[in-house]
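Quick one, probably user error.
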């Protein structure tokens, strides 16, 4: 059995640890002992409490493992990934850190490390799908619509966050970039809303977010866009908070105390946006890849609708995000993907057979992508 270290045992990290423990020895690490409680009695899982903001702790923890899975908060992700690479250990990371991942490419190549980043659902599986088709056809457009929501719609936000509110708020304030007719377009987040219908849950509203990430630089495709989906009405509330300054990152003075409005907002929203224990939620994603295949027009459709698993108590967002990453772990351990350096998920998709193996791996765990071609 391989030894794998999972850094971060929150909602997604713990789901990945449980999945990997079916075949491997797992060490799950978190600064919060409470996050580790549900893992302590699971076969093949060891747990330890450690401050992962300290590089020396990470280096000790990963010294004797075959591979590392990174699941720390985004603001810690870049430094954590760098530290792991410095130890010469392969890593699959889902922290979605804001820094440019390719700044670590030279280091990873020097250390002979396979480093897969952004390996969740979106970014993640969307990239894998596009990478696959970009290698097998002439892609002219890529559209990705994705959202994770509770089934119960509660006023006023009609939203619950499986991640920390400050990470969600980042989607609403970072300018959204996409490619149109071969040119980079930058618009405010929450712009260009459109309605989409889904059989399972009805109408959702999609809007621009900065979700293409590495695809902006690695894929030379004339039209690419990713939009986030929420229940109708959510956009207006977020715009109101943003334009009123509640997402402001500059400090303001409150009776001699300096605070960042965004920190206060995130603190206030934490309770309202926190999923209740065993609360049913779902992940929905629609991907369209259009272009020419063997000289003929074609469009591939990938549709995902996944819901909370009441048997295991694992949320849909944890399943769809985590099992993408654990599928990539298996590709590395089995020798199916061996590209040294920094690898966004589209690089995985470009390798023959890897998309099929990732789809099969997730389907075996109940996460099924419906694929069709027109």
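Nope, works fine. Designed sequence:
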């Amino acid at each position: 059995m391989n030894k794998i270290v999972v850094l971060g045992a929150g909602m997604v990290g713990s789901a990945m640890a449980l999945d990997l423990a079916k075949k491997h020895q797992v060490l799950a690490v978190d600064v919060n002992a409470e996050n580790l409680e549900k893992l302590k009695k699971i076969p093949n899982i060891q747990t330890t409490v450690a401050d992962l903001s300290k590089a020396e702790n990470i280096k000790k923890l990963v010294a004797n493992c075959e591979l590392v899975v990174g699941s720390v908060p985004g603001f810690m992700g870049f430094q954590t990934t760098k530290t792991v690479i410095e130890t010469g250990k392969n890593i699959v990371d889902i922290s979605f850190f804001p820094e440019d991942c390719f700044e670590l490419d030279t280091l990873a190549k020097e250390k002979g490390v396979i480093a897969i980043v952004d390996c969740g659902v979106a970014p993640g599986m969307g990239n894998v799908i596009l990478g696959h088709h970009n290698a097998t056809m002439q892609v002219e457009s890529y559209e990705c619509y994705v959202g994770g929501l509770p089934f119960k719609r509660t006023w006023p936000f009609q939203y619950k966050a499986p991640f920390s509110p400050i990470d969600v708020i980042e989607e609403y304030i970072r300018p959204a970039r996409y490619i149109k007719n071969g040119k980079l377009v930058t618009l405010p987040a929450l712009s260009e809303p459109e309605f989409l219908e889904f059989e399972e849950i009805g109408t959702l509203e999609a809007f621009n977010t900065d979700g293409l990430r590495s695809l902006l630089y690695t894929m030379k495709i004339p039209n690419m866009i990713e939009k986030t989906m929420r229940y109708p009405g959510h956009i207006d509330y977020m715009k109101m908070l943003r334009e009123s300054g509640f997402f402001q990152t500059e400090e303001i003075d409150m009776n001699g105390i300096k605070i960042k409005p965004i920190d206060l907002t995130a603190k206030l929203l934490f309770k309202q946006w926190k999923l209740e224990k065993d609360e049913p939620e779902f992940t929905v994603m629609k991907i369209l890849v259009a272009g020419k295949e063997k000289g003929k027009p074609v469009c591939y459709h990938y549709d995902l609708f996944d819901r909370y698993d009441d048997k295991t108590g694992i949320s849909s967002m944890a399943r769809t995000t985590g099992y993408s990453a654990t599928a990539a772990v298996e590709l590395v351990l089995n020798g199916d993907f061996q590209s040294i350096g920094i690898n966004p998920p589209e690089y995985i998709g470009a390798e023959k057979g890897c998309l099929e193996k990732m789809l099969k791996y997730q389907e075996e765990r109940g996460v099924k992508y419906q694929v069709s071609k027109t």
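The longest helix spans residues 316-333.
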